[in-house]
Design a protein that fits this description.
The chain folds into 2 domains: 42-156 and 317-385, Periplasmic binding protein-like II (D-Maltodextrin-Binding Protein, domain 2); 158-315 and 392-431, D-Maltodextrin-Binding Protein, domain 2, CATH 3.40.190.10. The protein is 50% helix and 14% strand. The chain has helices spanning 2-34, 53-67, 78-91, 106-112, 119-124, 126-129, 136-143, 165-170, 179-188, 207-219, 236-252, 262-270, 329-343, 345-353, 362-366, 368-373, 377-385, 398-413, 419-431; strands spanning 42-48, 70-76, 98-102, 144-145, 148-149, 152-164, 197-199, 274-280, 299-303, 316-323. α10 crosses α18 and α18 (398-413) runs antiparallel to α19 (419-431). The chain is globular and about 65 Å long.
Length: 434
C-alpha cells in the first residue's frame, strides 16, 4: 500500500502540471490568434509633402490592422526633407526608418550608402511584388542605381502639359504640338486686364525653380550634363532655353510667380489664372475636384511638347521608399513588409483611389475604377512606355547642382543677371564637384 499510496501521491503533481501546461498552451494559442506579426513595432516615415503624404496617413490604420505595426508619417517640404534626412543618415541618429526618396537622390543614396540595398529582397520576393506589372522605367529610375535597389518605387509621375481647353477653343487654337507653339500661344492668351495669364511655372529660389527650368530645358533641347555625366550647365542650348524661360515669366506669367513653388504654381492653375503649365501628373487629379478647383471640366492633359525636330522626351519623375541603413535588422524587415504592402496591387490601387496621384503599375492604367476617376491615365501610360528616367540626371552630385541652378535661374528671373552670366558662374562651381 505504501508503494501504491506513494505512486498516487506522486501522480498528483504530474497531473496538476499537465493541466497547468494545457491551460498555458490554450492561453498562448488564444493570444497568438489575436496577435499580429509586427505587434509593438513603430515605423517612422519621413515623407515629402506631396499627393501621397496624407494618403499614407490614411492607410496607416489598415496597415496596423493587418500587421500590428504603428505607422508614423512625418510630412515635410522638399528642402526640409532633404536636409533632415541627410542629417539623420550622416549622424546615424536613426530618426527615420523609411524615407521617401526623390528619383534624383538615387545617386547620392547609392554613393553614400544611406539606404539598405534591397536587391536581394526584391529578387527573393519578386513573385509577391508582381514586378512584371510595374513599368520598367519606374523600377529602374525610382528604385535602382547602378543595378542595385537603393529604394523601391512608391509614386511615379509623368512630365505632362496641362492646358485650358476652353481658352484654346475660344482663341481657335489646338493644343501646342511644339515648344515653339507653346511659347507663341502662351503670349497670345496672356491678358492681364482679365487676370488671365498664358503660362505659370515655379520661380522660387532653390529646388523649385531649378526643377521646373530643367523640365523646360529638356523640352527645348538642353541638358545640364554631357553624355559622360560631366556638368554642362552653360551650354549654348541651356543659355538659350533659360532666355526663353525668362521671356515666358516676363511676358506671360502671373505677378508673383517668381515666388511660386510647386504648391503656388498648382494653386494658381487650379484657380484659373493660367492657360498652360508644364507639370508632373501628380497634380492632375485635383483639377477635377470642385472642392479645390475652379476649372473642373476645362483642363486637358497631354505629353509635354518638345522643340521642332526633337524626339519626345517622355520625362519620368517621382518617389521611392528607402530604408535607413542605420536601423537594426528587425526594423529593416518591418520596413520591407510595409514597402511590399503599400506597393501591392490591391493597396496601391487604393493608394491612388484616395488621391495619391502616383500611378506606376500597368494594371492601374486599365483599371475601370481608376479610369473612371482619372481620364488622363492613357497619357501617363504613353509616357511610361517610352519613359526617360534620366530626365534630370540621377548622379551623386545632383543635389549640389540643383542648389547652384536654383540660385542661377532665380537670379535671371529677377533681372539681376543674364542667362549666360548666371550659368557660367554655376558651371564654374559645378566643375569643382567632379
Amino acid at each position: 500500500m505504501a508503494n501504491a499510496s506513494s505512486s498516487m501521491v506522486a501522480a498528483k503533481p504530474t497531473t496538476i502540471y499537465t493541466l497547468a501546461a494545457a491551460v498555458v498552451a490554450l492561453m498562448a494559442t488564444a493570444s497568438y490568434a489575436n496577435s499580429k506579426p509586427l505587434d509593438g513595432v513603430t515605423l517612422t516615415i519621413a515623407s515629402m509633402n506631396d499627393g501621397f503624404s496624407n494618403v499614407l496617413v490614411k492607410l496607416a490604420p489598415a496597415f496596423k490592422a493587418e500587421t500590428g505595426a504603428d505607422l508614423k508619417v512625418e510630412i515635410m517640404d522638399y528642402g526640409t526633407l532633404l536636409t533632415k534626412t541627410t542629417a539623420d543618415f550622416i549622424g546615424d541618429t536613426k530618426g527615420y526608418d523609411l524615407v521617401t526618396m526623390d528619383i534624383v537622390w538615387a545617386g547620392a543614396y547609392a554613393e553614400n550608402k544611406y539606404s539598405v540595398d534591397l536587391t536581394d529582397r526584391v529578387t527573393r520576393d519578386a513573385a509577391e511584388l508582381e514586378l512584371d506589372d510595374i513599368y520598367p522605367v519606374v523600377l529602374k529610375s525610382l528604385g535602382q542605381y547602378d543595378g542595385k535597389y537603393v529604394a523601391f518605387p512608391l509614386a511615379a509621375y509623368a512630365n505632362v502639359l496641362a492646358y485650358r481647353k476652353d481658352l484654346l477653343q475660344a482663341a481657335g487654337l489646338k493644343p501646342p504640338a511644339t515648344m515653339e507653339d507653346l511659347v507663341e500661344y502662351a503670349k497670345k492668351l496672356n491678358d492681364p486686364a482679365k487676370k488671365q495669364y498664358g503660362f505659370v511655372a515655379n520661380g522660387q529660389k532653390g529646388p523649385a525653380v531649378a526643377q521646373d527650368w530643367m523640365q523646360y530645358n529638356n523640352q527645348l533641347g538642353g541638358s545640364i550634363v554631357t553624355k559622360d555625366g560631366k556638368p554642362a550647365l552653360n551650354s549654348e542650348a541651356n543659355i538659350k532655353s533659360l532666355a526663353v524661360y525668362k521671356q515666358l515669366f516676363t511676358e506671360a506669367a502671373p505677378p508673383g510667380a517668381i515666388e511660386y513653388d510647386w504648391g503656388g504654381r498648382e494653386e494658381s492653375f487650379r484657380q484659373g489664372m493660367a492657360a498652360f503649365m508644364q507639370t508632373w501628373s501628380v497634380g492632375a487629379a485635383a483639377y477635377s475636384d470642385p472642392k479645390v478647383s475652379n476649372i473642373v471640366g476645362k483642363v486637358g492633359i497631354a505629353v509635354a511638347p518638345v522643340s521642332k525636330g526633337m524626339t519626345p522626351q517622355y520625362g519620368v519623375g517621382g518617389w521611392g521608399l528607402a530604408i535607413n541603413a542605420d536601423v537594426d535588422k528587425s526594423k529593416q524587415d518591418a520596413a520591407w513588409t510595409f514597402i511590399k504592402w503599400v506597393s501591392s496591387k490591391k493597396i496601391h490601387k487604393e493608394f491612388n483611389m484616395l488621391g495619391a496621384g502616383g500611378f506606376m503599375r500597368k494594371s492601374e492604367m486599365t483599371d475601370p475604377d481608376l479610369l473612371a476617376k482619372y481620364d488622363f491615365l492613357p497619357v501617363i501610360a504613353e509616357t511610361y512606355e517610352h519613359g526617360n528616367g534620366e530626365f534630370r540626371p540621377r548622379i551623386p552630385e545632383y543635389p549640389e547642382i540643383q542648389d547652384l541652378l536654383g540660385t542661377a535661374v532665380n537670379s535671371v528671373l529677377a533681372g539681376a543677371t543674364t542667362p549666360k552670366e548666371a550659368l557660367d558662374k554655376a558651371q564654374d562651381a559645378a566643375k569643382k564637384l567632379f
